[in-house]
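Interim report to the steering committee. The following record documents the input for dual-specificity kinase (265 residues).
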Amino acid sequence: MGEFKWLQQVFEKLGPSLYDFLRKNSYRSFPIDLVREIGWQLLECVAFMHDLRMIHTDLKPENILLVSPEYLKIPDYKSTSKSPSSFFKRVPKSSAIKVIDFGSTTYEREDQTYIVSTRHYRAPEVILGLGWSYPCDIWSVGCILVELCTGEALFQTHENLEHLAMMERVLGLMPQQMLKRVDRHAEKYVRRGRLDWPEGATSRESIKAVMKLPRLQNLIMQHVDHSAGDLIHLLQGLLRYDPFERLTARDALRHSFFTRDHLRR
Protein backbone atom coordinates (compact mmCIF):
# COMPACT_ATOMS: atom_id res chain seq x y z
CA MET A 1 0.00 0.00 0.00
CA GLY A 2 1.21 3.44 -0.79
CA GLU A 3 1.96 6.00 1.83
CA PHE A 4 -0.88 8.36 2.60
CA LYS A 5 -0.02 11.97 3.32
CA TRP A 6 -2.61 14.06 5.06
CA LEU A 7 -2.84 17.78 4.50
CA GLN A 8 -4.27 19.32 7.61
CA GLN A 9 -5.71 22.81 7.72
CA VAL A 10 -5.87 24.35 11.16
CA PHE A 11 -8.20 27.25 11.86
CA GLU A 12 -8.41 29.24 15.04
CA LYS A 13 -11.15 28.22 17.42
CA LEU A 14 -13.95 30.76 17.44
CA GLY A 15 -17.26 31.18 19.22
CA PRO A 16 -20.81 30.86 17.89
CA SER A 17 -22.26 32.91 15.07
CA LEU A 18 -24.37 35.92 15.97
CA TYR A 19 -27.41 33.99 14.74
CA ASP A 20 -26.67 30.99 16.96
CA PHE A 21 -26.12 33.28 19.92
CA LEU A 22 -29.46 35.00 19.32
CA ARG A 23 -31.22 31.65 18.87
CA LYS A 24 -29.87 30.18 22.10
CA ASN A 25 -30.78 33.44 23.83
CA SER A 26 -34.47 33.10 22.80
CA TYR A 27 -33.96 35.79 20.12
CA ARG A 28 -33.49 38.56 22.66
CA SER A 29 -31.76 41.74 21.62
CA PHE A 30 -28.19 42.82 22.29
CA PRO A 31 -27.49 45.92 24.42
CA ILE A 32 -27.04 48.99 22.24
CA ASP A 33 -23.39 49.49 23.24
CA LEU A 34 -22.64 45.95 22.07
CA VAL A 35 -24.49 46.60 18.81
CA ARG A 36 -22.30 49.66 18.35
CA GLU A 37 -19.06 47.71 18.90
CA ILE A 38 -20.10 44.87 16.60
CA GLY A 39 -21.35 47.29 13.96
CA TRP A 40 -18.07 49.17 14.00
CA GLN A 41 -16.05 46.01 13.42
CA LEU A 42 -18.41 44.77 10.71
CA LEU A 43 -18.19 48.05 8.82
CA GLU A 44 -14.40 48.06 9.17
CA CYS A 45 -14.34 44.62 7.57
CA VAL A 46 -16.66 45.70 4.77
CA ALA A 47 -14.64 48.89 4.18
CA PHE A 48 -11.45 46.82 3.94
CA MET A 49 -13.02 44.44 1.43
CA HIS A 50 -14.45 47.26 -0.65
CA ASP A 51 -11.06 48.99 -0.69
CA LEU A 52 -9.78 45.78 -2.27
CA ARG A 53 -12.66 46.01 -4.79
CA MET A 54 -14.28 42.88 -3.33
CA ILE A 55 -17.98 42.42 -2.53
CA HIS A 56 -18.92 39.82 0.09
CA THR A 57 -22.54 39.43 -1.19
CA ASP A 58 -23.69 37.18 1.69
CA LEU A 59 -23.39 39.14 4.92
CA LYS A 60 -25.75 37.79 7.58
CA PRO A 61 -25.61 36.89 11.29
CA GLU A 62 -24.75 33.27 10.41
CA ASN A 63 -21.55 34.51 8.74
CA ILE A 64 -20.37 36.63 11.65
CA LEU A 65 -18.70 34.70 14.46
CA LEU A 66 -17.96 35.83 17.96
CA VAL A 67 -14.28 35.30 18.72
CA SER A 68 -15.08 33.98 22.19
CA PRO A 69 -17.91 31.66 23.26
CA GLU A 70 -17.94 33.14 26.77
CA TYR A 71 -20.95 35.11 27.93
CA LEU A 72 -22.41 36.87 30.94
CA LYS A 73 -25.95 36.76 32.28
CA ILE A 74 -27.58 40.11 32.92
CA PRO A 75 -31.10 41.06 34.07
CA ASP A 76 -33.62 41.31 31.24
CA TYR A 77 -35.99 44.02 32.39
CA LYS A 78 -38.01 43.85 29.16
CA SER A 79 -38.87 40.17 29.45
CA THR A 80 -42.60 39.45 29.44
CA SER A 81 -42.28 35.75 30.22
CA LYS A 82 -43.20 34.38 33.65
CA SER A 83 -40.42 31.81 33.57
CA PRO A 84 -37.70 32.59 36.17
CA SER A 85 -34.99 31.78 33.64
CA SER A 86 -36.30 34.53 31.34
CA PHE A 87 -35.47 37.24 33.89
CA PHE A 88 -31.88 37.05 32.64
CA LYS A 89 -30.41 37.08 29.16
CA ARG A 90 -26.99 36.20 27.80
CA VAL A 91 -24.57 38.87 26.63
CA PRO A 92 -21.26 38.04 24.93
CA LYS A 93 -18.33 38.64 27.25
CA SER A 94 -16.33 40.04 24.34
CA SER A 95 -17.67 41.99 21.37
CA ALA A 96 -14.83 40.84 19.09
CA ILE A 97 -16.11 39.29 15.83
CA LYS A 98 -14.79 37.76 12.63
CA VAL A 99 -16.58 37.63 9.28
CA ILE A 100 -16.51 34.26 7.51
CA ASP A 101 -17.73 32.47 4.36
CA PHE A 102 -16.18 34.25 1.41
CA GLY A 103 -17.40 31.60 -1.03
CA SER A 104 -19.73 34.06 -2.74
CA THR A 105 -17.30 36.97 -2.68
CA THR A 106 -16.73 38.55 -6.08
CA TYR A 107 -14.93 41.43 -7.73
CA GLU A 108 -16.94 44.30 -9.15
CA ARG A 109 -18.08 43.85 -12.75
CA GLU A 110 -20.51 45.75 -14.95
CA ASP A 111 -22.95 42.90 -15.63
CA GLN A 112 -23.74 41.76 -12.10
CA THR A 113 -27.50 41.15 -12.23
CA TYR A 114 -27.76 37.58 -10.90
CA ILE A 115 -29.34 37.01 -7.47
CA VAL A 116 -27.05 37.34 -4.46
CA SER A 117 -27.45 37.53 -0.68
CA THR A 118 -29.59 35.42 1.61
CA ARG A 119 -33.24 36.47 1.33
CA HIS A 120 -33.67 38.48 4.55
CA TYR A 121 -30.56 40.57 3.82
CA ARG A 122 -31.08 41.08 0.08
CA ALA A 123 -31.05 44.65 -1.23
CA PRO A 124 -33.93 46.01 -3.32
CA GLU A 125 -31.79 46.53 -6.44
CA VAL A 126 -31.01 42.80 -6.41
CA ILE A 127 -34.69 41.83 -6.27
CA LEU A 128 -35.61 44.33 -8.99
CA GLY A 129 -32.83 43.15 -11.30
CA LEU A 130 -31.22 46.58 -11.53
CA GLY A 131 -27.66 45.34 -11.09
CA TRP A 132 -25.70 45.45 -7.87
CA SER A 133 -22.31 46.39 -6.50
CA TYR A 134 -20.73 47.37 -3.17
CA PRO A 135 -23.94 48.92 -1.77
CA CYS A 136 -25.62 45.49 -1.56
CA ASP A 137 -23.23 44.70 1.32
CA ILE A 138 -24.20 47.96 3.03
CA TRP A 139 -27.90 47.09 2.87
CA SER A 140 -27.12 43.75 4.51
CA VAL A 141 -25.22 45.50 7.30
CA GLY A 142 -28.24 47.70 7.98
CA CYS A 143 -30.52 44.65 8.24
CA ILE A 144 -28.05 42.95 10.58
CA LEU A 145 -27.83 45.94 12.93
CA VAL A 146 -31.62 46.09 13.19
CA GLU A 147 -31.71 42.38 13.96
CA LEU A 148 -29.16 42.73 16.74
CA CYS A 149 -31.25 45.54 18.26
CA THR A 150 -34.53 43.65 18.11
CA GLY A 151 -33.48 39.99 18.21
CA GLU A 152 -35.39 39.13 15.03
CA ALA A 153 -34.77 39.47 11.31
CA LEU A 154 -36.21 42.69 9.90
CA PHE A 155 -37.77 41.19 6.75
CA GLN A 156 -39.09 37.71 7.51
CA THR A 157 -40.35 36.59 4.14
CA HIS A 158 -39.60 34.19 1.29
CA GLU A 159 -41.43 35.94 -1.55
CA ASN A 160 -40.25 38.89 -3.64
CA LEU A 161 -43.34 41.10 -3.78
CA GLU A 162 -44.02 40.61 -0.07
CA HIS A 163 -40.38 41.45 0.63
CA LEU A 164 -40.60 44.69 -1.36
CA ALA A 165 -43.90 45.57 0.36
CA MET A 166 -42.26 45.01 3.76
CA MET A 167 -39.50 47.40 2.76
CA GLU A 168 -42.07 50.08 1.91
CA ARG A 169 -43.93 49.46 5.16
CA VAL A 170 -40.75 49.96 7.22
CA LEU A 171 -38.89 52.53 5.11
CA GLY A 172 -41.50 54.35 3.01
CA LEU A 173 -42.30 54.29 -0.71
CA MET A 174 -39.65 53.23 -3.21
CA PRO A 175 -38.44 55.86 -5.69
CA GLN A 176 -40.41 55.70 -8.93
CA GLN A 177 -37.21 55.97 -10.96
CA MET A 178 -36.11 52.60 -9.55
CA LEU A 179 -39.45 50.93 -10.23
CA LYS A 180 -39.46 52.23 -13.79
CA ARG A 181 -36.15 50.48 -14.50
CA VAL A 182 -36.99 46.97 -13.25
CA ASP A 183 -35.91 44.09 -15.46
CA ARG A 184 -38.41 41.85 -17.25
CA HIS A 185 -38.43 39.30 -14.42
CA ALA A 186 -39.51 41.94 -11.87
CA GLU A 187 -42.07 43.76 -14.05
CA LYS A 188 -44.87 41.71 -12.48
CA TYR A 189 -44.20 43.39 -9.12
CA VAL A 190 -44.91 46.89 -10.48
CA ARG A 191 -48.16 48.46 -11.69
CA ARG A 192 -48.61 52.07 -12.81
CA GLY A 193 -45.26 53.10 -11.39
CA ARG A 194 -45.88 51.62 -7.92
CA LEU A 195 -45.61 48.24 -6.27
CA ASP A 196 -48.56 46.04 -7.15
CA TRP A 197 -49.51 45.82 -3.51
CA PRO A 198 -51.74 44.74 -1.85
CA GLU A 199 -53.57 43.81 -5.08
CA GLY A 200 -50.79 41.42 -6.09
CA ALA A 201 -50.47 39.76 -2.69
CA THR A 202 -50.58 35.98 -2.70
CA SER A 203 -52.80 35.75 0.41
CA ARG A 204 -54.46 37.67 3.24
CA GLU A 205 -51.81 36.25 5.54
CA SER A 206 -49.17 37.92 3.39
CA ILE A 207 -50.93 41.28 3.71
CA LYS A 208 -51.18 40.82 7.48
CA ALA A 209 -47.47 40.00 7.70
CA VAL A 210 -46.67 43.29 6.00
CA MET A 211 -49.21 45.42 7.88
CA LYS A 212 -47.98 44.34 11.29
CA LEU A 213 -44.52 45.79 10.68
CA PRO A 214 -43.80 49.18 12.29
CA ARG A 215 -41.91 52.06 10.73
CA LEU A 216 -38.14 51.90 11.24
CA GLN A 217 -38.13 54.75 13.74
CA ASN A 218 -40.84 53.14 15.88
CA LEU A 219 -39.16 49.74 15.73
CA ILE A 220 -35.85 51.09 17.01
CA MET A 221 -37.50 53.23 19.70
CA GLN A 222 -39.24 50.09 21.01
CA HIS A 223 -35.92 48.37 21.67
CA VAL A 224 -33.23 51.02 22.18
CA ASP A 225 -33.03 53.09 25.37
CA HIS A 226 -30.29 55.51 24.39
CA SER A 227 -28.51 56.51 21.17
CA ALA A 228 -31.77 55.75 19.33
CA GLY A 229 -31.69 58.98 17.33
CA ASP A 230 -28.15 58.43 16.09
CA LEU A 231 -28.86 54.78 15.28
CA ILE A 232 -32.04 55.60 13.34
CA HIS A 233 -30.17 58.19 11.29
CA LEU A 234 -27.37 55.71 10.57
CA LEU A 235 -29.84 52.99 9.53
CA GLN A 236 -31.66 55.39 7.24
CA GLY A 237 -28.34 55.91 5.47
CA LEU A 238 -27.52 52.20 5.28
CA LEU A 239 -31.02 51.29 4.09
CA ARG A 240 -31.55 53.89 1.39
CA TYR A 241 -33.33 52.37 -1.59
CA ASP A 242 -31.11 53.96 -4.22
CA PRO A 243 -27.73 52.19 -3.98
CA PHE A 244 -25.98 55.31 -5.29
CA GLU A 245 -27.31 57.30 -2.31
CA ARG A 246 -26.55 54.62 0.29
CA LEU A 247 -23.74 55.33 2.74
CA THR A 248 -20.40 53.75 2.01
CA ALA A 249 -18.74 51.72 4.74
CA ARG A 250 -16.15 54.49 5.25
CA ASP A 251 -18.88 57.14 5.55
CA ALA A 252 -20.79 54.97 8.03
CA LEU A 253 -17.72 54.60 10.25
CA ARG A 254 -17.64 58.40 10.58
CA HIS A 255 -21.29 58.56 11.63
CA SER A 256 -22.19 60.08 14.99
CA PHE A 257 -23.58 56.73 16.19
CA PHE A 258 -19.96 55.59 16.41
CA THR A 259 -18.25 58.90 17.20
CA ARG A 260 -20.54 60.90 19.44
CA ASP A 261 -19.40 60.52 23.06
CA HIS A 262 -17.70 57.25 22.19
CA LEU A 263 -13.93 56.94 22.12
CA ARG A 264 -13.37 54.36 19.43
CA ARG A 265 -9.69 53.72 18.81
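The chain has one domain: 18-105+112-256. The committee is asked to note this result when reviewing the revised timeline.
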